[in-house]
Amino acid sequence: MSKQTEVAMARAERFSSRWGLLAAALGMAIGTGNIWRFPRIAAKNGGGAFLIPWMVALVLWSIPLLMAESAMGRATRRGTVGSFGTIMGRRFAWMGGFVALCTIAIMCYYSVVTGWCLRYLAAAVIGTVGRVDPELFWQSFVGSQTQPVFFHLLAMVIAATILFGGVAGGIERVSKVLIPALFVILAIGALRSLTLPGATAGLEFLFRPNWNSLAHYRVWLEGLTQSAWSTGAGWGLFLTYAVYSRSREDVPLNSLVVGFGDNSASLLVGMGLFPAVFALAPALGLVPGQVLTEPGPASTGMAFLWIPRLFAACPGGGLLTALFFLALSVAAITSLISMLELATCNLVDAGMRRNHAVTLSATFGFLAGIPSALRLSFLENQDWVWGLGLLLCGLFFAIAVHHFGVKRFREELLNVPGAATKVGRWWELTVRFIIPAEFVLLVGWWFYQAIVVFEPHSWWNPLRPFSLGTCVIQWGAGVTVLLLANRFLARCSKGARSSS
Amino acid sequence: MSTAAIIMMIIIVGGVWGTFAFLLVRVARQEKQAIDDSQQQVCKQ
Fold first, then answer.
1. What count of CB pairs under 8 Å joins A to B?
2. ipTM reported for the complex, 2 dp
């Protein structure tokens, strides 16, 4: 088959059904952030009171951005670079490049984290996790150097193998099995936890509304950050999947399904973990609040240190541990494939064959992720820099909509003929005013944290992992390169897909 | 569990899961409608 034919076929790829697109999109959104980060952040910010800002953020940040992303992907049929180039004009292709840069940079260390989940899943299945002291197990795993690299490679190979199957034959087929399975696993885990003696104390902690907490700006900012990072809004991932959607897709409804599906999964995790921790921790002389909130190295505390210890102490704990790491692995893999697809999609736009694009993206992701696999401090630095960069990506999407015309975007790209769900003017107001305001508040707050809390004496030093300096230097380097290469990016991304 | 926590749980969990279920049902209806429409079109042809 000629290269042109293969490239044309890759560009004509589509999800075979709406359910396939939704399963893949839910897989993209539901990741380690739901299972690993949500319980910790919810516990740290007052449980029940935290849930209110988190829900508000879903409506005022995540869902509007998911709608914008999805509409851009479906209308342009191009990856992030081509989408920004088409919607805003070729001079702005670099903005799509920055979105791709952030997500690809995250993919490199996310694959390492996925590898940890796979290692713990294997150990849980053979029963090693419950027998060995979790602290020792973690130290011997991370300290071995070869193991994290091997499992990082394994994660990348699994994701690439799925992508080799194509959009319908790979991503869709796998997501249609894994996502319902993930919800079933989470439900089984929650049912088991809720039947433990003393489990209701966990539910009380998760849902008790401490209204005083709502007066703290930190709770609102944490709710907003959690929603932004958990749903994947502004990462360009939903845009990438929308490239392969049908032309008469109901974008608003799909975006709502992804947003509420993501929050549903988080709540299911919370209703499984909080009761388990509160039921099991006191018997081991542990304080439940500490178990839930202690971040540990690279925020691994709860998932990799406490959970194995707690579950080992309860009847059927081996099964519960295996279920927990199975859910974590499934969530991580389905998110990783969406990140790898984002890189692949942009390369296919540039005229590369799909299989070559997958191989190149996965090889790059593996090689660039090795430093994170070898040094936790490097991973933490990358998480800090590119995690914050995603907020900037969210702003870029809002700017793209502004540039196109907010009203025009809503009328021409969102409320298309055939879409039964019409978006009202609230969306225009949110994109025009609220998202930029949220961005200023969030980035301002995180920078304030960097200067005052994380690195008070060396916030300017780019060599410090959580400094403002390291963010500015790495973002600046990325933006400079992308601006210099803008003409090249715009030329490379002009390969359009058919819109049928 | 306190009454406040129970009420909060019903509102949040019921609200989020209920909305998610409602949205999925809506998608299913739209898909069924789309299949019916395409079948009708085939019959006409």
1. 68
2. 0.93
